[in-house]
Amino acid sequence: MNAAALLDSRRRYFATGATRPVGWRRGQLDALRRLLTEREQELTAALEEDLGKSRTEAFLSEIAVVRAELDFARRHLARWMAPEKIAVPGGLRPGRAWTQARPLGVVLIIGPWNYPLQLVLAPLVGALAAGNAAVLKPSELATATSAVLARLLPLYLDTDAVTVIEGGAEVSSDLLAQPFDHVFYTGGERVGKIVMKAAAEHLTPVTLELGGKSPAVVVGGDLRAAARRIAYGKFMNAAQTCVAPDYILTTPAAAPALAEALADAVQDFYGTDPRTSGDYGRIINDHHFDRLVGLLDGGTVVSGGRHDRAERYIEPTVLRDVDPDSPLMQEEIFGPLLPVLEVEGLDAAIRFIGARPHPLAAYLFSDRAEHLAAFTERVQAGGLAHNVCTIQLAVPGLPFGGVGASGTGSYHGRQSFVTFSHLQPVFSKPARVDTLRLAYPPFGRVKRVLLRRLL
User: Fold this and answer.
1) DSSP summary character for residue 61
2) For the chain, which end, N or C, has fewer CB atoms within 10 Å of the first or last residue's CB respectively?
3) Which residue of the set 57, 209, 315, 332 is catalytic?
4) 275-278: which pairs have CB atoms within 8 A and are 24 or more residues apart?
5) CB burial of residue 447 (10 Å; 0-12, 13-18, 19+)
6) Is 389 a catalytic residue?
7) Do residues 214 and 362 make contact, with C-beta atoms less than 8 angstroms apart?
8) Is 209 considered catalytic here?
């Protein structure tokens, strides 16, 4: 691959204006929608091969999410593209002002391995809706999904505008060395810094969707209902989800019952031996498996804990007696280990969260309105959710993104269109009458008085 030549060819195609008409954009969105429908079996088979995802989970967590993004963008595209009128101050009238959304050009989208379909195609929806050309780099760790994207996308999309490049870190480095018009990266903080540094060489804007230790605070309501919702959000995709609850904060009185309810929820979802469940996934590779097993001694296992390296299987595991300073609490777990820590109450939980880097998501389980209000007001996170976790990503109109160490920029719904657009301001004033004469020097007493009154 010659990354410079690839970017140059895509720039030349973009310069023809082919990607700008609404018809081209709608056509690409419709073609991507057909791909998801017509090739669903091939896509879900690849996800099953890479991550052990069941066909149903693959549909719900990957295909359906992208399809909802497509439908939302298709429905609102004309309105998003329309000029937006801006009020003009009296002193500058007559005149008109507006913003016009213009495509950025050629964008680079680098996807992760944990949702290797959704987190490549969902950003692509925004890039196409905004009228850009795009180079996609799927994760080399999800080899089957990377291969199926590289094979299928050229059959449906404009190959002069959309290109899939496969490969490892060296390929990513070659692409990042090029002056793309925007770089969209989903993954971990370490590589996120590399992406940002490389983009800075060209002053290329970036969107970084990273991660962090997303807390779930349980201080009220039905504990068993909370446990089921937390277990669902945590253990889907074998807990390899950037917004999965990373740990739980609850009171000493509630902790034993909550831990028991979590174990019950796991059994209800995956049976007494999740290894045999067709609905429970596997860890992506041996490296991550070994890392997760090494974290198991960071607390007392109260349920789960069984693992098998040959299958890259780790049972959904709940831990208590966890030291807040242990390795288990110092890095994003990104796997099926769920620590339950004890705090005095909501205020203590909020202080605990605030003393650490801003998470990508934060969850509160309570039936008290004052709890919901305090949590929403005082917790700084990429996004918040009350009495649910993880499923907020399924709301296509709700922006998604991090803050601080959990990322920069956001997307989903209209925000995807905005992320991949330049909202170009335009001011137009008629030339036939020069109403600006009042602002020209020299400034006598009358002009000074009038200017102060007008402006």
Assistant:
1) I
2) C
3) 209
4) 275/306, 275/308, 275/311, 275/313, 275/315, 278/54
5) middle
6) no
7) yes
8) yes
Kindly name the residue from 242, 315, 332, 389 that is annotated as catalytic: 242
The Cα–Cα gap between 337 and 217 comes to 16
> Can you tell me the distance from the alpha carbon of 212 to that of 330, in angstroms, rounded to the nearest whole number?
10
Beta bridge partners of 106: 133
SS3 content of the chain, % helix, strand, coil (to 5): 50, 20, 35
Pairwise CA distance, residues 176 & 160, whole Å: 20
pLDDT digit string (tens) for 315-360?
999 999 999 999 999 999 999 999 999 999 999 999 999 999 999 9
402-444 pLDDT, tens digit each: 999 999 999 999 999 999 999 999 999 998 888 888 888 998 8
Q: Report the Cα 453 to chain-centroid distance in Å.
A: 48
Q: Which amino acid is at 79?
A: R
Sheet hosting strand 407-408, strand order edge to edge = 162-164, 133-137, 106-110, 182-186, 206-209, 407-408
**HSE-CB of 198 using CA atoms within 13 angstroms:** 22
Strand order in the sheet with 84-86: 84-86, 96-103, 421-428
Cβ(243)–Cβ(202) under 8 Å?
no
Instruction: Determine contact, residues 391/381, Cβ cutoff 8 Å.
Output: no
Spell out the residues 6+ positions from residue 223 whose beta carbon is closer than 8 angstroms to its own: 254, 257, 258, 261
Of residues 216, 211, 183, the one with CA closest to residue 379: 216
Cβ atoms of 350 and 376 within 8 Å: the answer is no
